[in-house]
Amino acid sequence: LQGIIQAYKSGVTLQGNSTSLGRWDYSGSFFFSISAITTIGYGNLSPSTAVGRIFCIVFALFGIPLNLILLNEIGQLMLLGVQHCAHRLEEVFHWQNKASLLMKTCALVTGLLLFLLLPPLLFSHKEGWSYEEGFYYSFITLSTIGFGDYVIGMNPDRTYPRWYKNVISLWILFGMAWLALVIKFCINLLE
């Protein structure tokens, strides 16, 4: 039993009569990197050697600030896009306040669809989760709470496509930027 536990902690998963090192392949490593620099930290995968832990610390010391800069830039580009569209609507239809409100509403609805409402359908299909579990995973991930009770690509009974973790990693980056804008908007309303 100790051997099985150690193998699991090292990234070996049992699938039928064979083992797979899929947790530390390229997409698994990319997903680990994203969860580290976004500070989600699911807790399901971690370095097991002293050198790996030291590398992870150095990686996080540089990666977390760079990620915050990246998320801020992505968020600013999203905001700039919304403002540009609102400005164009004001010019074309001569709407003043209505264009800004319309564009903010469209950005909110689009973000809700792309980052919170549609991804659970993918998770239901690929992970076998219910829609509610997928929605819960989406919010817990994008808000960086990252409990680790639901983590993608970890079911040894399922086969995942190579692109899956990479696409989810990009979804996390853009979704966090969008959610940060929504939270900033809520803070402005509360203040």
TrEMBL record:
GO terms for molecular function: outward rectifier potassium channel activity; potassium ion leak channel activity. InterPro entries: 2pore_dom_K_chnl (IPR003280), K_chnl_dom (IPR013099). GO terms for cellular component: plasma membrane. It is found in: Membrane. The chain crosses the membrane at residues 51-71, 101-123, 135-155, 167-190. GO terms for biological process: stabilization of membrane potential. Keywords: Ion channel, Ion transport, Membrane, Potassium, Transmembrane, Transmembrane helix, Transport. It is a multi-pass membrane protein. This is KCNKH protein. Belongs to the two pore domain potassium channel (TC 1.A.1.8) family. PANTHER family: POTASSIUM CHANNEL SUBFAMILY K MEMBER 17 (PTHR11003:SF340), POTASSIUM CHANNEL, SUBFAMILY K (PTHR11003). Gene3D superfamilies: 1.10.287.70. It comes from Sakesphorus luctuosus. Residues 21-78, 113-190 form the Potassium channel domain. The keyword Ion transport applies.
